[in-house]
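Attaching the record inline, Q. Sequence:
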Amino acid sequence: MAETEDAPMPPAPEDAPPAANGPEPNQTLYIKNLDESLSRRYRLEELKGKLKNLFRPYGEILDIVALSNFYDKGQAFVVFKSTEMAEKAMAALQGHVMSGKEMRIFFAKGKSDAVAKLDGSYRPREKRVRPKPQSKPKGGDGNMVDASGAVPPAAPSGAPPPFPGGAPPPAPAGFGGGGGGGFGHGATPAQAAPRQAAASTTPGPILPHPILFLENLPPHATTDTVAAVFSPFPGFKEVRLVPSRPGIAFCEFENEMQSGIALTRLQGFKVEDQPIRITFSKS
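Structure, as predicted:
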């Protein structure tokens, strides 16, 4: 039996009980709501051993997949040799308490690699890479190119650079003023360098992201408490608390537009009289 840590997980089903319109019964069971401390890299083998001992009485197990990355914590896949074995295990173990948590079991949406290798349909999965934002194209001489593909004409020699509206923007406070704080009026280059370095390291705006970062939650807030706030919004997928940092959580939606709607509508929403702060996740 292959029990590999690096094998990619098959697609997980929606967080809903098995229904007529859910995934068809198959050989792969998706288990969630497991103790997340068992998803740490150094405890993965312990988690697989517990699942193996628990599910083995219901049939031959081909594979057990559990990963330690953030998005797959508290989850695992158990692959049986036949669909009948998987159905029997689900019926017997649905709601079983392991390490203090009641596991929830579903049929996986996709075919596992172990099953695909047996029936000859296996194809290596492509790694998903986030697209990088495209930078504005430049001409051959390094000048920026506008939307029409033309390079803007250069300013005449000796002329000041153009400003929108014909007037330069106001100088920042303390820059070139009479207080001696600006570079050029009482300040030396050495004094101005730290300011310029600080300005160059200022982080840019956080781009929209399907995952929201939640702060200032009540320290004893549970996953169900937070999910009750966000689940009414379209595209909601799941909430993940950070056990080591009470009051912090991540909420995932299907895309940036749906997460942005939730962010706008729920910014400052009070959970047990505490206004939550919401931003887009940085990664």
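The helical segments are 44-55, 83-93, 113-119, 189-200, 223-230, 256-266. Confidence is low (pLDDT under 50) at residues 1-6, 15-19, 162-168, 171-186.

More tomorrow.
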